[in-house]
Amino acid sequence: MKRIISPDLAPRLEALYREKNRRCYVDPDPLVFLYRYPDPADREIAGLAAASLAYGNVRQIINSVAVVLEVMGKSPSRYVENNRPERFKRDFDGFVHRFATGAHIAALLAGVRRIVSDHGSLMAFFRTACTADAETYLSALGTFAEALRDTTWDDPGHLLPRVEKGSACKRLNLYLRWMVRRDEVDPGGWDALCPSRLIIPLDVHMHRICLELGLTERRQADMKTALEITRAFSGINPDDPVRYDFVLTRRGIRKDECFSLPPRSEWTAA
Asked: Inter-axis angle of helices 122-129 and 40-52, to 10 degrees?
């Protein structure tokens, strides 16, 4: 049976956004690192590294991202431009973040280096992967991930999902949210891209929330579910369907009561 979203949901989400979509609520979140970089050329590389490591315990994530960015120094773009993959591998030797090793980070940066060398920036390449009539950036995400992986040097492994396999690609979609949207929380930088084509960064926690809100009835947190949820949010805000991602997911990261949601019965109607 098709769910009908309560008309009360949109104003409640908007009220939550206006009250809680604030930088003071970001910590602990790897997004905090992006605020260090006023230059989008640095931010897009730091953001990709941070998003790629955004799995596991949040404090472990923060520690691992801090290590990677410290190695790259004040300007990740200069670090990538001025060094070769062999240097990346030496610099990250011994690094471990759950299943990721220094070799995986080095391979990711090798892919970044090649794309930036060929296209000038990651954003410039991503734009070439976009098609004008696509509803979302799904196809472009696949092209982007494959281009980052397509290096003769090594493979970044699971740091980059294979979009064609149908996973929700949460970390890549989170990266796009950070880079495409611009508000008090998301710093932007890829301003030539359109927020209306973003896909919700779906993980188990966000999936549970969207089930509570009646935005999906699918039980798998995969790309089909992410697209279904994104379409539901588009019905509320077609220009910015991932607008409420930050405030909704704070509940799983921060324990503040102010991020709690009313019971599902108050948000949806059959």
From this structure: 70
pLDDT tens, position by position, for the chain (270 residues)? 345 567 789 999 999 999 999 999 999 999 999 999 999 999 999 999 999 999 988 999 999 999 999 999 999 999 999 999 999 999 999 999 998 999 999 999 999 999 999 999 999 999 999 998 899 999 999 999 999 998 767 889 989 999 999 999 999 999 999 999 999 999 999 999 999 999 999 999 999 999 989 999 999 999 999 999 999 999 999 999 999 999 999 875 655 545 555 555 555 443
222 DSSP β-pair partners: 167
DSSP letters, the chain, are: ---EE-TTHHHHHHHHHHHH--GGGT-SSGGGGGGG--SHHHHHHHHHHHHHT--S-HHHHHHHHHHHHHHH-S-HHHHHHH--HHHHHHHTTT-EETTEEHHHHHHHHHHHHHHHHHHSSHHHHHHHH--TT-SSSHHHHHHHHHHHH--SS---GGGS--GGGTB--HHHHHHHHHHH--SSS-----TTS-GGG------HHHHHHHHHHTS----S-BHHHHHHHHHHHHHH-TT-TTTTHHHHHHHHH---GGG----GGGTEE-
From residue 165, alpha-carbon distances to 11, 122, 160, 199, 222 in Å are: 36, 23, 12, 16, 10
Q: What residues form DSSP beta bridges with 5?
A: 268
